[in-house]
Structures are given as C-alpha cells and as structure tokens.
Amino acid sequence: MLRGSDRSRVGGLALLLAISLVAAGPASAAGFSIFEAGSRSTAMGGAFVAHADDLSAMFYNPAGVAQGVKKGELRAMVGVTLIVPKAELAQGYDPYPGSDYSVKMADQFFFPPNFYTSYGLSDCVSLSFGTWFPFGLATKWDEPDFRGRYLSQYVDLKQFAAGLQLAWQINDVIAVGAGPEMRFSTVKLHRKVPLFNPFTNRVVDAAHADIRADLEMDLTFGAGIRLTPTPRLSIGASYHGAVDANFEGESTFYQLSTGNPQLDAAFAAKIPVNTKVPTKTTIQAPAQTQVGVGYDFGKLSLEAAGTFTEWSAFDTTVLEFEAVDGKQVPTSVLPHDWEDAWAFRFGAKWQVSEKFDLMGGFVYDQTPEPDGDVGPLLPDANRRGYSVGFSWKIGQKTWVDFSNLYLTFSERSITTNDDNFNGRWKNFANLTVLNMRTSF
Amino acid sequence: MKTTKNALLLALALALVATASPAAAQADFSKFVAIGASVDAGFLDNCWVRYGQVDSWNAILARQAGAPAFEQPLLDTPGTGCMYLISLAPQFGTRPAQVKPLNLTLPRPYDNLSIPGYTLQAALTKKGPSSASDVAGLVLRTLNATQVEQAASLKPTFVSIGLFGNEILGPATSGTAVDGVTVMPAAMYAASYQAVVDTLKAAQGGTGKGVAQLIPDITTIPFTSTIPPFITSGGQVVMGPNGQPLTFLSSRGGDATGGGAGVAPIPATSLVNITASAFLATGYGIPCAVLDAGGAPANDPRRTNCNKPLPDNANAQLGLPGVVLYPEEVALLKARGAEFNEQIRAIATAAGYKVFDTTAFFTDLRTHGREYAGITVNAAFLSGGLISYDGVHPTSLGYAVWADEMVRFINANYGTTIPRPDLSAYLFSGSSAQGGYPVNFGAALTTEDAIAWGAAIYTPEVMRTLADTFPVSARTAAAAPETEEAPVPAEPRGRSARIDD
C-alpha cells in the first residue's frame, strides 16, 4: 500500500516519465501546435470538428463525444502518432552564417500517444477522460560547429493535456460538451555561450548552457458545440483555452575550455559555471478555435474546417537567471512576435463496406512565425499537408485506424532574421497515426 | 496623327532613358583604386603585415565587388612589429619587426596606395620615403610620384578616398592638442582635401566616382576612452572627502620630464589614454595617500612614483608620450574633427563622391556593436572583438564589418548588387588569411588579475576596473619598453608616435 503522498509522488513521477520518454514532436501543425490527436481525423486532413465521431473529439470538438452514447457503455480509444521531421538550412546568406554554409537538422522521431475513454451516464450524456499532446516542439542541430549554436542547438518543448469533459446531446439538433483541461509542460534548451578570445582574435565556445524546467502544471478548458440541422449536415465549433506556462527550472552552464586558462578563469569569475542556476521563463500556448461543416452523401462524407490559433500570445520568451555566488547570467530575451494564423482543412471519407472506411484529406496551414523569428529554434513555414488513411473493423466492437500525413513546407528565404542568422530553409515532415477503438 | 505618334515615341524613348539612367550610375570596379592612411591599409595591432592587409576593408570590398587584380603592397610576416597579447592584465609583447615585401617589383602603382601614418599633406607632396625606415617607400617605391598622383595615373573607375585623420589623431594619441600647433586649422585641411579630390576627379574624367570617409570621433576610440580619469581601487571608484570621485594627478602643460602648471587632480571630463597604463602601474598620477588608505603594501610598485603627475603632453624630442587630454583639448579635438568632416562632406560631395559617415559608424560600433546569431561584437577594448590591441585600428573582424557596411552603402548609393562578405571566417578564425589570425598564448596571469578582468568581461567598460592596478605591469609596447624581445631597429618610433591612422 502506498500512502497518499507516496502515491502522488509516484503518480507525478510516472507522468513525468511518460512525458519525457515519449516526447512530443516538433510542430506538426504550424507554429508548435500538434493537430494529430487521432488517426481518423488526421486522415481527413484534420477536418473533424463537424463530424467529430470518435473519442478524439475531446480535442476536435468535445460535443462530438455525445454521439451514439449509451448509458453504462464504456468506450476507449488509444493510439500513437509517429512524427518524423526534417529541416535544413539549404543555404546560408552573407554576412552570417555565410553563403557557403548549409546544415541539416539531426534525425529525430517522436511518438506522442493519445488515450481517451468515455462512459455513458445516460443515453445522451457522457463523461470522458482523455490525454493528448496539443503542443510540442523539438529541433536539434548536433554538428559541433553549427553556426547557430549560440541561438539554439536543441530545444524540446512539450505540452501534454489531460481533460475531463461532459458531453450532452440535448436533442437531435444540438450537442454540447465542455470540461477542464490540465496542461503539463516541460521545456529544455541547449545552446553554447560565445566569448571573444582576445588572445586568438576568435569567437570561442565558453560554456554549454543546459536550460530546463520540469513539469509545469496549468489549468484551462475545452468546449464545443455541434449542430445537426439535418441528418446529413453537421456543423461544429470548438475552443481550447490558452495557457501561460510559468516555468521555474534550472540551468547549468558547463564550462568549456577556451584553450586559455586566463580567459577560462575570467569567464568563471563572471558566470556561475558548473552549478545549478535557478531559472524562470514563460511559454505561451495559444488558444485554438475550430469551426467546420460536414455533409454526408450516403457512403461519401465530406468536411471542411478552419482552425484559428491565437499565436499572437507567443510574443516573447524571457529567460531570467538568479544570481549565484554573486554571479549573474544576463537575462536572455527572445522576441517572437508571432501572428494569429488560420489553417484550412478538407477531408473525405468513403465507406467501402460496413467494416472498412477509406479517407483522404488536405490541409493548408499558415505559419504564425514572422521572418524575424525564423531560425534554428524553429524554422517554420506555410505548410500543405496530404493525408490518407483507413478504418478497419477487426472485431465486434473494435476498430483499427491508420493514417499518414505528408507535410510539405514552403521554402522560406529569410534575409531579415532578428538574430542576423539568414538563409533559405527547407522542411518537411511525415506523420503516421495508429489508433484502436473499442467499447465495452 | 503622325505628330501624336512621334510625341508618343519620344515620350517612350525618354522613359527608356530615364529607366536606364540608374544603371549608368552603377559603380564600375574594373579599376578600383584606394588612397588613405593606416586604417585603409589594413593596419592592426600597431603593425603592417600581410595577415592584416589581406583583410583591409578596401581589399575585402575589392573581393566582393569582383575588382580584378587589386594589388596591395603586401608585407610578409612578421611585419613591422606586431603587438600580441601576453596577459589579460593587459600585457602586450611585440614581435620583432622584419620588413619582407612580397610584391615590391609590381611594375605599376598599387591599387591600394594607403600608407600608415599618412596625412593629406604627405599624400600630395611625398614622392618617396623620408627615411630608410619610412614605410611610404614600400608603397611609393621609385615611381617618383605622390600617392595621389600614382592613384590618378591608374585612371581609376572607382576610387576610395580613405580616412585621412592623422591630422587630428596624432594630437589625440599624444595627449597634446594645441590649436595651430599640433592641431591644424580647418581651412588648411580643406585646401589639401580639395587638391586631393581635384586630382582624382580629373583622372576620372571630371566627375568623381567612388566613396570618401569621414573621421571618427577620436575621443571615443578605445585608445582614448578605455581608462577613466578616476582612481579606482578593487574595481570601486575612490571617493574624495567631498564625496566626488578622485581623479588622477597631472600637471597641465607638463611632460614626462616635468614642468607644467603644477601637480593637481585632472578635471573629471579629461581623457586618459591607454599609454597611461604603464605610468599608472608604477604609481604616476596616484596620490600616495590613496595607496595608504587602500592598504597597499610597502612593496606595491605604485609606491615608486606615487604623487608624481601623469605626463600631460608628449615630448617629441625625447620620444616620450603624453597621456592626458584636458577638457579643453577634448573640446578642441571634437570641434576640429567636426569641422574637418564638414569640409570632407562638402568637397567630396561637390566632386561627385559619395561620403560614408564613418563617424556615425564607429560611434554605432561602440554603443551598439553588431550581433551575429548570438555573438555580440563591439568596439570595447580586448573583449569587444572589433578593435585591435593598439586601441585605434580595427581587427580583421572590425575591417570586415566595415567592408560589409561599405558594400551596403555602395549598393544603396550606386544601385549595385555587390554581395555582402561572409563574416564567419573573421569571427571564428580571426582573419581570412591562411590559418587565420596567428595564435599566440601569453604567460600565465595571476588568478586575481584574471578575475578582475573577468568581472567586466561582457561590458564596454571592461577596462575600467583595471585602471588603478595593472599590477603585472604594463603595455610593453608602450612608453616603458621592457619587452622580452629586442626592439627592432627598423621600427624605432615609440608607440604613441606609431599610433597613426
């Protein structure tokens, strides 16, 4: 038997492990939003707010969970998204990092999971619990002489949502759903600290900065409405609130030898090296609104949806370091100045048989990131995504869903980066989502 | 009808001409020629040497603009006596000078004719070296023509009229600004500048094509602005009984041999140049009472000369430096510099040259610096990366940033699309020369000194905490020449006289 405090400690640890082991992807929707909370929705290009007809509706439209609810029935859905991102600075520009410079992001892959369960309180009201990753960002540049290493070598930002929602099918036309959402966030940033070495007249790496904050918890909510004026027509809208994750973490500045002991001593006299430095920062996860309309033509269903993400909340990241032993690391201010952005999504589903659905979709996703902020931390761009997928009934009440989304990014030629790190960026990403749904 | 058609055709033709004219104004770098002084020649670390010359801002501009065969009077290593950093105290050494010209036999004038130490007067009148050690001989050779005449003879398509500032830098670095004696009247400067411009313009067919430089505010360069006038102890300014910061002692009008109006604290708005560090290290300028109050031990080297004044003025005969600019000297230099700049701007512009605001550029480097992907460089002495050991001349990185600015300036003014230089080699190798900037590690420094230096390493005030101590001693290239290496006969001049622009 675990005592209460032990249980919560173990529970917290398990949650932390779950987050840090599975990792989140780099942004698979523009900015660092992750829009792939379920396989069928992904197969439809994310156009799912109107139909919202599986438990991933907790993310796409909480009202959708009320569809087909039966008193006493327990439904569950579990799955994982495999994200494989690629990014490269295809060509740097002069004066920095230089027109003969190009670099590829390190190979990475991520597999954020999702899990949803719902219980029928009546034939029109359900209580649901679900978890998903609405936000995540990971970029990694592992070449030691990466010319953006003083900005970012590695960033890993994850936000994990756990929601508890009620959904109510009020009548044949209107359903609503809403509930609180806990967001659990972690962030890590690695970069080098430069120093001008006056002995050699060269810029050298004086320290490796490891900045991290573990498990910040914040509360927000999700809500949705779904209208079915006719049996064939569905209209949906949903909203998930914003979160300001106020991290209290720690940084370690691991000193690197500059090759000159005097310079090393001078640096260590100024910067608290090889010790933990309490660090504060805030990351804003924006509010997200989805609206969409769906229509069923018998075996064929279509949906069009728009997602509006209030990215203007993500304006500046400030890293504040506490003084240690009288040594103060200067505050680091990273202006972002992002803009609110829309994504437009289109999906189609063809019911091939009672046991097999085929789906396809398209998404055009506007980047919220202005030219000034496009850099190694996140080289975002407008995206076009092409998706396919299927659902296959493998048991009495059990379905397997599979989808693949291929995301192409517009090439982005940046000449006005705020940090004077300019060049032509090329990205793409592939996302594969696997889900299983069942009911008891 | 026909008239209307002709009118339309004429209008079209005029429109085409109007469209074409910006292209006609484009800079033509097929014969790019530079004149000027040390900063136009790639001089750094108080030295003229290949690894600096290859990255003179003129040379970088020539490379970026695709100027063919841009020839410079390259001098192989070790050069004319280059400073190197021994310790962060700071302590410098000087490499033995050895003048090894690499292309002395070029059968025509060089394209970069800039000569360290040059003034407008020299550019107009000197046809050869004035002594065996005069570096002008390495550039002018036996062509029996002045710098300006040689430039004109090349029929330049694009001219760089460099930074002729020695007229005002000399008085500043020697701490001796006397109107009409060491500082010339603006009219005299203007007459010479007009003659230079007239000759070049004539060689370009009557219209000047090229760029001209203004003179930076020499009262803000590290050489004159690094050491504050205040006495400090342990990084803290020492306060006097009246609550005001104590300033160093000097004797107005005196020099290192004595004289002057009597020993007294200098006004708080005086400038103390970095040559003073050698004097401060042995106590010049510091009241003995301050050392007593600060608990300085009996063997503190500063007790040797405490209560003696810092030399205000240079003694030209004995080659002794002056290290203090009194407020009226500062005001004179600022005002005269501004007057010179007005003349440059008027004369060069009237002749057709585009005038780059070098004054604003260097001020900006000092106050804001430049940032490249998290790397901040600025004009702070030693820590900033843009100004070399002599406190006056840029590093190769500094020259590259200047060249980058010039590329943008020329593109903006001539409608060209000259590519900006890649700064990564300068940032990470210190030079575009093979192997980068030559590396020299100095002897060990005491931890206390390193900490004192480190306490300010990120700020432009990096040197300010050092002003009172310099405990390990001094800039060996400065007035007290206790270099480990033998002074070089070919470079006999004292440091303050060598700091020329």
In a few lines, what is going on in this structure?
With 440 residues, chain A is mostly beta strands. Chain A is built from 4 helices and 20 strands. Chain A has a single domain, classed as Beta Barrel (Porin).
**Briefly, what CATH class of chain A?**
Mainly Beta
Order of helices and strands of chain A: HHHEEEEEEEEEHEEEEEEEEEEE
Q: Count helical runs of chain B.
A: 18
Radius of gyration of chain B: 24 Å
Please tell me the CATH architecture of chain A by its name.
Answer: Beta Barrel
Helix content of chain A: under 10%
Question: What is the spatial order of strands in the main beta sheet of chain B?
Answer: 1-4-5-12
Main β sheet profile of chain A: 14 strands, antiparallel, barrel
Mean pLDDT of chain B: 84
- Our measurement of the CA-to-CA distance between the termini of chain B, rounded to an integer number of angstroms, reads 67 Å
Shape of chain B: globular
Q: How many domains would you count in the coordinates of chain A?
A: 1
Q: Would you state the CATH class of chain B?
A: Alpha Beta
| CATH topology call of chain B | Rossmann fold
Number of helices of chain A: 4
Strand composition percent of chain A: over 45%
Q: What is the mean predicted local confidence, pLDDT of chain A?
A: 92
Structural class of chain A: mainly beta
Oligomer: heterodimer
Structural class of chain B, by secondary structure, is alpha/beta
Please explain how this structure is put together:
The complex is a heterodimer of chains A (440) and B (501). With 440 residues, chain A is mainly beta. Chain A has one domain (4-439): Outer membrane protein transport protein (OMPP1/FadL/TodX) (Porin). Chain A has helices at residues 4-22, 39-43, 57-60, 261-270, and strands spanning 74-92, 103-104, 113-120, 125-140, 154-169, 174-197, 202-227, 233-240, 243-255, 276-285, 288-297, 300-309, 316-321, 332-335, 341-353, 356-365, 383-393, 399-409, 412-414, 423-439. In chain A, strand 3 and strand 4 form a beta hairpin. Chain B is α/β, with parallel strands linked by helices and 501 residues long. In chain B, strands 1-4-5-12 form a 4-stranded parallel beta sheet, with helices on both faces. A two-stranded antiparallel ribbon of chain B has the order 2-3. In chain B, a hairpin with a 2-residue loop joins strand 6 (232-233) and strand 7. The model of chain B is unreliable at 14-24, 441-447 and 449-501 (pLDDT under 50). The A-B interface holds A 94-101, 145, 147-151, 191, 194-196, 198-203, 259-263, 265-270, 330, 375, 419-421 and B 85, 87-88, 370-377, 382-385, 395-397, 400, 404, 419-425, 427-431, 436-437, 439-442, 444-445, 447, 449-451, 453-455, 457-458.
